[in-house]
Amino acid sequence: MSDKKGPITLKVILIGNSGVGKSSVMNRYVNHRFTNMYRATVGTDFLSKTINIDGDTVTLQIWDTAGTERFQSLGTPLYRGAHCCMLVFDVTSKASFSALDGWRKEFLIQGEPKDPSDFPFIVLGNKTDLSDREVSDKLARQWCEEIRGEYFEGSAKEDLDVEKPFLRAAQRGLQQYKKHTLENTGHFQITCKQPRETRNTCEC
């Protein structure tokens, strides 16, 4: 199923409230950098990174979206074609965690994935380096079980466990890519075990 002509391109969308650290997480993973200078994303931002997943060369197109209402109209064209969605919240902000359900529902409406019940969501709790935590690991995992998502947490600032959620997003996105590529091409191979001279009557 590997694409011999070049890397498989996977689209991963980062969504969540403004200020939870979506840009910081993306920049830490792709560029290995972090800055304390906060700059709200205006519209969208985009970075890419090529990695190897289970023998396939994959180029991750990571889209960081603005977490403010005035830019949510951009979601319609941006969400479509995504292979995985990463919901990001701040573990020191219960409000940012509570907002994830709304972000997820909006993504499913605007993104129109082919199979919403099977679409992969990765949930990332950022800023675990801070002491004033409001969202427990247990609470986050309970919600992830309800939505069939996978939970990770870490710190972009301290470079703690930032790579893991992106690698998992790539794995789940690759599964989506292969599943829908197979559906679109219809390459289902049937092996006939009858002798060649009798295959005209084979009903396999």
Key words describing this protein structure:
204 residues; alpha/beta; single chain; disordered C terminus; protein transport; prenylation; Rossmann fold
Report on the structure:
The chain is of the alpha/beta class. The protein has one domain (8-179): Rossmann fold. The chain has helices spanning 22-31, 75-79, 94-98, 100-111, 137-147, 163-185, and strands spanning 8-15, 44-53, 56-65, 84-90, 121-126, 150-153. A 6-stranded mixed β-sheet has the order 2-3-1-4-5-6, sandwiched between helices. It is globular and about 50 Å long. The two termini are 24 Å apart. 37% of the residues are buried. Mean pLDDT is 84; it is low at 187-204.
**Weakly predicted, low-confidence segments:** 187-204
Describe the strand arrangement of the main beta sheet, using strand numbers. Answer: 2-3-1-4-5-6
CATH homologous superfamily assignment: P-loop containing nucleotide triphosphate hydrolases
Indicate the CATH class: Alpha Beta
Which geometry do the CA atoms define? globular
Integer tally of domains: 1
What gyration radius follows from the Cα positions, in whole Å? Answer: 20 Å
Could you give the distance between the termini?
Answer: 24 Å
Order of helices and strands: EHEEHEHHEHEH
Indicate the structural class: alpha/beta
* Largest sheet report: 6 strands, mixed
Please bin the fraction of helical residues.
Answer: 25-40%
CATH architecture: 3-Layer(aba) Sandwich
